[in-house]
Structures are given as C-alpha cells and as structure tokens.
C-alpha cells in the first residue's frame, strides 16, 4: 500500500493546523481513533466515550468488530451496555476500514508487541498498523503509541516512517508515547485512575498528548521524552518479573526446608516499611511481565550491555511449570500411582485470578508437560469455557464442571489459577489428591501437597 501523502483523501491545504487540534482536544470536540480493540484498546474506547468525544475503533479482526457492532463484548470484565448505546447513537464506530482514521484528530495504537521464537522484539503489529494508517493520516493529527516496547521505538521506528510520508512531529504532526498500564479486573485501579505517562517527540507534541489523555484519565504525567516513558514501562514490568522470580526461587528453598513460604510471606509483610509482598505460583503469565523485560534485554545488547537480573528471572519463572509437574509426579507416587495414565484436572487456565485472559498462561505449559508424561489432562475454569487456539498449544478441550463426581473421578487436582468462583471447601472435600502451588490449603503431606 502506498504510504505517500498523494494517496491521502484529505487535502493538506484544508487540514486542521496543530493549534486547531489542540483546541478541539481541550474543548472536547475532537474525534479519537483507537487501533487495536483488545484488553488495552477497548477499555480506552470506553473512557473516551465517557468523556463525550466520538470514537472510531479499528481492528483487523472482523469477528471483534462484528461483535461490537452487534452490542456484544468479548472481554469478560468489560460490560457491553455502554458500548452498545454508543454504537446505536453513532458515537462509537467499530470498523476494519483504516481509511476512517482520516476523520480522527487523534490516533492511538494499542496493538500487541510479542516476542519472536528467538525471544527478540516483534514489532510487526506496530509497523503493520502504521503502514495501514499512513495513506489516511493527515497534517495536524496526533499519533500515540501505547504498546509496550524498548526505549527508542517511537523515535527510531515510528518517527522515520512518518517523516518519509511528510509528517514532521512538532511542525505539521504530533507524535507521543504513552504506555498502557492495564490490570484487568483490578477492583481498586482502572484505566481512568491509573496515572498516565506521556512523552512527546517535541514540546508541542507533549502538550497535545497531555490534552488528549486528560480527556479520559484523572492524571496525565509529562516526561521529558518518549524514551523515558518507554523505559518507565519496562522498569515497572522488570521490577515485577525479578521479584516474582525471587519468591519463586525462595519457595523452592523453603519447601526443601519444610517451611511454608506463604506463612513466611505473611510474616514478612507485617513489617510496615522496606518490604513489598510478592507471591509464588506455577509460573508467570500475562502479555506484559513475561515478555516486556526482554525487549530491554534485546536493546541493551546494542550498547554492549547484558541485563543479567532480567535474564535470570526469566529462567526461574519459565522453569516453574516443570517444577510443578515434577511435584505432581511425586504426589501421585505417594499414593502408588504413575503420572502415565493418571487423570489430572487443572483448576484455572487464565493467567491470573478472576479474568478470562489466557495470554502466556503458565497453566498451558503445565498441561503440555503433564500430557507429554502420559497424563489424561482436563481443566475447569468458569472464565474460559473452551480453550482457544494458540500459537504454541493445541488443546481441544472444554471446561468441565466441578461437581462431586468430576472431582472424585480424577486422580489429581492441580490449582493453577485461584479464581474466587471456585468452591474451595468442596474441592478439598471431594478431590482425592491436590497439588497446590497457590497456597490455598495448608499442606498435610498425605492428600494436599505444595509445589
């Protein structure tokens, strides 16, 4: 697709000036386009709609667009009523037609940034979306990237492509980076009240970016450059990855010493300063923490540096499903059963409790390892009725009910994700053998085991 200005449907001579766009953002007459309608983009759509502006939602997945146009939400914690009303009122237009970006004053990219099989940054969704947008961008707009990425992406990857198409940040266009900080189903913090970092390519870009996000969030915080905002997001996720790895490693040490790591964590958390509790589990999941720190690892090599803490944390966290699988074998051995041929029920396949998000869920790797050892694996998750197709895993399974017969009919029950919807009393009563990496039960060394 040609990315030169000659294909732009808007005439540059009649296009709004940067000052006009800033004024439209400040008086709430601007129109916003959100590209990528997933776990980041869809909550952002709702916020901008709530602020009173019109929103175009763009996605390459026609299934998502059709559901939204039919008044449905495909993300469990995002209710559909307000979206349905906005579609009916003509204030929200979900579409696969990227040409509609021409009508927007602000365009926000909320697309995935995964890793390749070689654990290197995959920016194809970012660059691909930008190529689809370029023929329809016009002078005076503001473009914001929210996808988590390595420091330098906005200025080194996005800006040159814009400038080759005639869009010069700070002159006839605005470019900002504002990292997403989503935490699905967090009861205390939502997109609206989580402070928003904003870094602009120029002071004028920053001013316009702040005006954009102040439409939707309670607090927008300026930083000196896009690279600072990019690095801040990586720091947040690396901090969590390293500390979760630490407590996962300490769990193994405590287990070998016969010490309950969850009691240890509760005891340490009684200190009112200098300590923040992190909790172990069967591995690390979600689209951010297992992936984003390695964007920095890759970029650091360009400067001859090695992020040893991040790489070691990745090794520890990635090894946890294998650690849990080993303890499943030991638990079965304790009752005279082999894992080969055993019926194993996995409780929870989402990456965290009370959500339907399965991205990078360690439960999938645990299921793969147990299946590889010959176990007949099933799962139960009230938020995931059927396992979706994934790049790495191909399980054709539906969630099973958790009645007395289903629990008793398995040789082993493994707690991978501790959803509040589970009846922990009934599970303990009817499951013949339990492996518990989440610390739900006190281990007894006979029927309930930690991992």
Which features would summarize this protein structure in a list?
451 residues; alpha/beta; Rossmann fold; N-(1-d-carboxylethyl)-l-norvaline Dehydrogenase, domain 2; 3 domains; eight-stranded mixed beta sheet; five-stranded parallel beta sheet; 15 helices; 12% strand; globular; disordered N terminus
Structure explained in plain terms:
- With 451 residues, the chain is α/β, with parallel strands linked by helices.
- 37% of the residues lie in helices and 12% in strands.
- The protein is built from 15 helices and 13 strands.
- The protein has helices at 18-26, 41-50, 62-69, 81-88, 124-133, 153-164, 203-214, 226-256, 261-268, 293-301, 308-318, 320-334, 362-372, 404-408, 424-430, and strands at residues 31-35, 54-58, 92-95, 106-109, 142-145, 174-177, 196-200, 220-223, 343-347, 376-380, 412-415, 434-436, 448-450.
- It has an eight-stranded mixed β-sheet with strand order 3-2-1-4-5-6-7-8, sandwiched between helices.
- Residues 1-19 have low confidence and may be disordered.
Low-confidence parts: 1-19
The CATH superfamily of the largest domain is known as: NAD(P)-binding Rossmann-like Domain
Largest sheet: 8 strands, mixed
Strand portion, in percent?
5-15%
CATH class of the largest domain: Alpha Beta
- What is the string of helix and strand elements? HEHEHHEEHEHEEHEHHHHHEHEHEHEE
């Amino acid at each position: 697709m040609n990315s030169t200005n000659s294909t732009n449907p808007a005439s540059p001579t009649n296009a709004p000036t940067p000052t006009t766009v800033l004024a439209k953002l400040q008086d709430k007459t601007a129109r916003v386009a959100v590209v990528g309608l997933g776990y980041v983009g869809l909550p952002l759509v709702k916020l901008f709609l709530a602020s009173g502006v019109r929103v175009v939602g763009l996605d390459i997945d026609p299934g998502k667009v059709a559901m939204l146009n039919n008044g449905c939400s495909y993300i469990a914690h995002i209710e559909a009523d307000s979206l349905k009303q906005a579609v009916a009122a003509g204030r929200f237009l979900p579409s696969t037609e990227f040409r509609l970006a021409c009508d927007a004053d602000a365009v926000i990219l909320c697309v995935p940034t995964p890793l390749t099989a070689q654990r290197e940054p995959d920016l194809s969704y970012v660059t691909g979306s930008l190529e689809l947008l370029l023929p329809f961008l016009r002078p005076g707009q503001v473009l914001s990237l929210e996808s988590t990425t390595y420091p330098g992406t906005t200025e080194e990857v996005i800006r040159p492509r814009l400038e080759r198409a005639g869009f010069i940040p700070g002159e006839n266009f605005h470019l900002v980076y504002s990292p997403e900080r989503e935490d699905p189903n967090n009861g205390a913090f939502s997109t609206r009240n989580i402070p928003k970092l904003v870094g602009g390519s120029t002071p004028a870009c920053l001013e316009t970016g702040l005006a954009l996000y102040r439409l939707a969030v309670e607090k927008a915080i300026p930083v000196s450059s896009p690279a600072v905002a990019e690095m801040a997001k990586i720091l947040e996720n690396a901090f969590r990855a390293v500390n979760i790895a630490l407590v996962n490693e300490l769990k193994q040490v405590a287990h070998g010493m016969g010490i309950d790591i969850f009691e240890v964590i509760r005891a340490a958390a009684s200190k009112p300063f200098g300590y923040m509790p992190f909790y172990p589990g069967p591995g690390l999941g979600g689209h951010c923490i297992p992936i984003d720190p390695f964007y920095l690892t890759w970029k650091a090599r360009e400067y001859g540096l090695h992020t040893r803490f991040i790489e070691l944390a990745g090794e520890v966290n990635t090894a946890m499903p294998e650690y849990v699988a080993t303890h499943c074998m030991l638990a079965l051995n304790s009752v005279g059963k082999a894992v080969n041929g055993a019926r194993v029920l996995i409780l929870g396949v989402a990456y965290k409790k009370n959500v339907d998000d399965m991205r990078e869920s360690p439960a999938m790797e645990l299921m793969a390892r147990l299946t590889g050892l010959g176990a007949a694996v099933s799962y139960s998750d009230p938020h995931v009725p059927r396992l979706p197709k994934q790049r790495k895993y191909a399980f054709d399974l539906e969630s099973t009910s958790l009645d007395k017969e289903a629990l008793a009919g398995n040789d082993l029950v493994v707690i991978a994700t501790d959803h509040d919807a589970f009846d922990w009393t009934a599970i303990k009563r009817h499951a013949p053998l339990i492996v518990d990496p989440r610390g739900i039960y006190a281990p007894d060394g006979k029927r309930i085991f930690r991992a």
